[in-house]
């Protein structure tokens, strides 16, 4: 069953039986058969099959979200069998592109530990707001917010995050907190600006447990921002509710400076992937393991 679950995870990441077949070298009809067998073993449908689209059932989405870390976990266990003393002698250069926001809190503060542990490895790191493509052939790996297609690329799931609403304690004392999703309209909220510099007029919220949806009207918002890091800085003024990546406000939540607002509701969800060349060097694999530890050890949800 574990092999079939791994195949199901790959299918979910590629969102295409054809592409999954190309990446795994497994015939499309065999993939369909194995997914059907997995559904029979689990007693639930995982995928809604149509000729034009790929869609998970509610149970399929549940299985994917709770099992998608398994391939990386197994790979990490296998890698630990290698001689640890030889790792300390690793020598080479790793070229990586990382997402600016998540790296700011989770990875950059720990970089010195990696370099101390592996003094003969050089890191060339570039940072970008949001990576969804393979940026340059000279790269060894990227930290992406999407599955990147490529026959010579490996995609490894790292972390799942929700973007929910938060506020400062001062805001809560002065204005109170909304008790229901309908009360959001009574509060000042920092809206969003898309990549085309246009404010989003509506933001869809979804309940984590029931999948109920609520459409928030932001057409009259006085303030809209396109960068989550700067949104948080303005939100810390105590005058707004604001959305944030969980990893960016980990410390503020722990020390009580920020409070979650309607924690069962979220506006967006993001999957982080490490994408690397299939012939990744030992030094590159060490850096992948390091990134995995950074992102695994700081978790709120």
Description of the structure:
- The protein has 301 residues and is of the alpha+beta class.
- It has three domains: 2-68, Arc Repressor Mutant, subunit A; 88-160 and 271-297, 3-Layer(aba) Sandwich (D-Maltodextrin-Binding Protein, domain 2); 161-269, D-Maltodextrin-Binding Protein, domain 2 (3-Layer(aba) Sandwich), CATH 3.40.190.290.
- Helix content is 37%, strand content 26%.
- It has twelve helices and 14 strands.
- Strands 3, 4, 5, 6, 11, 12 and 14 form a seven-stranded mixed β-sheet that branches. Strands 9-8-13 form a three-stranded antiparallel β-sheet, with no helix packed on it.
- β1 (47-49) and β2 form a beta hairpin.
- The protein starts with a helix and ends with a helix.
What labels would you give this structure?
301 residues; alpha+beta; Arc Repressor Mutant, subunit A; D-Maltodextrin-Binding Protein, domain 2; 3 domains; 7-stranded mixed β-sheet; 3-stranded antiparallel β-sheet; 12 helices
Q: Mind telling me the CATH class of the largest domain?
A: Alpha Beta
* Number of H- or I-type helical stretches: 12
Q: What does the radius of gyration come to?
A: 21 Å
**What is the H-and-E element order?**
HHHEEHHHEHHEEEHEEEEHEHEEEH
Oligomer: single chain
- Give start-end ranges of low-pLDDT stretches: none
CATH topology of the largest domain: D-Maltodextrin-Binding Protein, domain 2
Query: Architecture of the largest domain, according to CATH?
Result: 3-Layer(aba) Sandwich
Instruction: Estimate the strand proportion.
Output: 25-35%
Largest sheet: 7 strands, mixed
- How many domains? 3
Terminal residue distance: 27 Å
What does the overall shape look like? globular
Helical content class? 25-40%
């Amino acid at each position: 069953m574990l092999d079939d679950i791994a195949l199901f995870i790959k299918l979910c990441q590629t969102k295409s039986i054809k592409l999954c077949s190309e990446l795994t070298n497994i015939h499309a009809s065999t993939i369909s058969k194995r997914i059907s067998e997995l559904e029979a073993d689990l007693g639930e449908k995982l995928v809604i099959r149509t000729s034009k689209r790929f869609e998970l059932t509610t149970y399929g989405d549940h299985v994917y979200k709770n099992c998608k870390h398994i391939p990386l976990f197994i790979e990490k266990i296998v890698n630990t069998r290698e001689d640890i003393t030889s790792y300390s002698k690793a020598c080479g250069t790793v070229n990586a592109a990382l997402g600016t926001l998540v790296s700011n809190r989770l990875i950059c503060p720990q970089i010195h530990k990696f370099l101390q542990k592996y003094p003969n490895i050089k890191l060339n790191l570039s940072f970008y707001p949001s990576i969804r493509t393979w940026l340059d052939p000279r790269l060894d790996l990227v930290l992406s917010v999407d599955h990147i297609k490529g026959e010579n690329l490996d995609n490894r799931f790292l972390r799942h995050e929700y973007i929910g609403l938060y506020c400062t304690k001062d805001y809560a004392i002065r204005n109170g907190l909304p008790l229901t999703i309908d009360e959001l309209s009574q509060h000042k909220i920092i809206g969003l600006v898309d990549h085309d510099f246009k404010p989003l007029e509506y933001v869809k919220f979804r309940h984590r447990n029931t999948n109920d949806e609520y459409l928030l009207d932001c057409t009259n918002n006085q303030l809209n921002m396109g960068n989550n890091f700067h949104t948080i800085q303005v939100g810390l003024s105590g005058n707004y509710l604001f959305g944030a990546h969980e990893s960016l406000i980990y410390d503020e939540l722990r020390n009580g400076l920020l409070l979650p607002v309607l924690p069962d509701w979220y506006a967006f969800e993001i999957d982080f992937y490490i994408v690397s060349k299939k012939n990744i060097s030992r030094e590159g694999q060490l850096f992948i393991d390091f990134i995995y530890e950074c992102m695994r050890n700081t978790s709120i949800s």
